[in-house]
Amino acid sequence: MRMRFYFLFIFYTLFLLFYPGNSDYFHLFAYNRSLFAQPQLKKNLAVEEFPYVIYPYSPTLTAKGAYIVDLPTFTPVYARKERTHFLPASTTKIITALVAFDIYKPDQILTVQAKPGEGQVMGLVSGERITVENLLYGTLVHSGNDAAFALADTYGLPKFVELMNKKAQALHMADSHFTNPAGLDQDNQYTSAYDLTLAGRELLKNPYLAKIVSTKEIIISDVDFKNFHTLTNVNKLLGEIQGIGGLKTGHTEDAGENLVSLYRRGDGHKFILVILKSLDRFQDTTNAISWINADIGYAR
């Protein structure tokens, strides 16, 4: 009995000691709970729209390889031998530009070394001093092989090509390998339609490079204003088809006609289209865009 009495005594003593009663502190917490309650955060959940093919038809293409994806979700809407190896030709310059942007600053001045006279060139002169930015315009707009080699030679051609392959690996381009920065046909240089969508998506993430590939025509010069170069985009669809925003052309006799395109549909949906080893890359891309407009719907 005595132990029970002591226990009850201690219990009530502690209860009365800590009981707030009708104190100001009690009123503060009891009647102003909103001051201490954690606010409920409103969650605005954005539900992505995913594309689907409305009718079971395919675009009319001459291309041996093709891949079309919805850009935001990277959902494929059309594929033809998308993992098959093809010669990249000048679509290689997408990777060249990404590497150059990694290792140089746009206003950095490079001195042109030996200029290759093979294929498409912008007309660089040996010893010409020119900014990286203007070389990027020459590489991506005019598809100048001399511009691509100028970017690589300054860094060291073997090391630059090594960085190109490391960039491809980082982008999970498992079906690609590069041996030169311009896209000249060589053994062990190849890519796939799927891989070029990865490269194109990466370039479009960079607003600076995305602006360059959407340029129709520009006149640039060296830093001494001795040599001026008129650069015209090889992609003749740019400015002719509404919604085309670049990206990169490519062509050699063995590679055929290649084209990587950004297309923004009238409703705002964006696509990357890759056409490889085509008989007519521009007509194939035009047909693919018509098919996208007519046959691709979206659902949540």
Instruction: Look up the CATH topology.
Output: Beta-lactamase
Q: What general outline do the C-alpha atoms trace?
A: globular
Q: If strands are numbered along the chain, what order do they take across the biggest sheet?
A: 3-2-10-9-8
How many E strands? 11
CATH superfamily placement: DD-peptidase/beta-lactamase superfamily
Report the uncertain regions: none
From the alpha-carbon coordinates, what is the Rg to the nearest angstrom? 30 Å
The SSE order reads: HHHEEEHEEHHHHHEEEEEHE
Between the first and last Cα atoms, what is the distance in angstroms?
A: 73 Å
What share of the residues does DSSP label as strand, in percent? 15-25%
Structural class: alpha+beta
What is the CATH C level class, in words?
A: Alpha Beta
Number of domains: 1
Name given to the CATH architecture: 3-Layer(aba) Sandwich
In short:
The chain is built from 10 helices and 11 strands.
Description:
The protein is an alpha+beta fold. It has one domain: Beta-lactamase. It has helices at residues 2-18, 24-30, 33-36, 93-103, 132-140, 145-155, 157-170, 193-204, 207-213, 281-295; strands at residues 50-53, 65-70, 75-80, 109-111, 129-131, 217-221, 228-232, 244-252, 256-264, 270-278, 296-299. The strands form four sheets. The protein has a five-stranded antiparallel beta sheet with strand order 3-2-10-9-8, sandwiched between helices. The chain has a two-stranded antiparallel ribbon with strand order 1-11. A hairpin with a 6-residue loop joins strand 6 (217-221) and strand 7 (228-232). The longest helix is centred in the N-terminal third of the chain and has 17 residues, at 2-18. The model has no long low-confidence stretch (mean pLDDT 89).
